[in-house]
Amino acid sequence: GKPYVVIIAIVPSGKILLVKQHRYTLDQITIEFPAGGTDGELPLVAAKRELEEETGYVAETWEELGEFQESSGIAEHVGYAFLARGLELSLKPKHDPLDKELIELTEKTVKEVTDMIAKGEINDATTVVAFCKALLLKKLE
C-alpha cells in the first residue's frame, strides 16, 4: 500500500477535530481523523495538505507521533501520525468540491473520543491507532 498520514488536530477549545464521511466501500457514515495518502510528498508536507483539504484548517505547530504498519500481514502500508495545534481557518475553500465523501466536521473531547472508540462508534483502525499513540505519549489532556 501507499504511505499515508493521519492528523490529530486540536482546535483552540482543546477539542479534537474529526471528519464525518460517507464511505462507499462500507456504505456507512464513519467518524475519523483527517487522513490521506502522501502522494509522493514528505509525510509532514502531505499532512499539512490533507488537513487543509479535508477541514479547511491550517496549523501553527506540528509534531510527528511516529509511524505504524496498518496491515503488516498483508502488505507494507506505513502510516505517519501527526499532532497539529494552533489551528486557524485557511483562506482557501473548505474542501475539494469534488470530494463527495466528506459530510461534516465535528469536534470532540479526549473523553468523548475514548468513549466512542470503546463503543465502536469510531472503528477506523488508523484513527484508533493514532489516538492510542497520542494518549500513550501523554500528548492529549
Description of the molecule:
The protein has 141 residues and is of the alpha+beta class. It contains three helices and seven strands; from the N terminus they run ββββαβββαα. Strands 1, 2, 3, 4, 5, 6 and 7 form a seven-stranded mixed sheet that branches. The N and C termini lie far apart (33 Å).
Give structural attributes:
141 residues; globular; 39% strand; alpha+beta; single chain; seven-stranded mixed sheet
Strand/helix succession: EEEEHEEEHH
Radius of gyration over C-alpha positions, nearest whole angstrom: 14 Å
Helix coverage percent of residues?
Answer: 10-25%
Amino-to-carboxy terminus distance: 33 Å
State the total count of DSSP E strands: 7
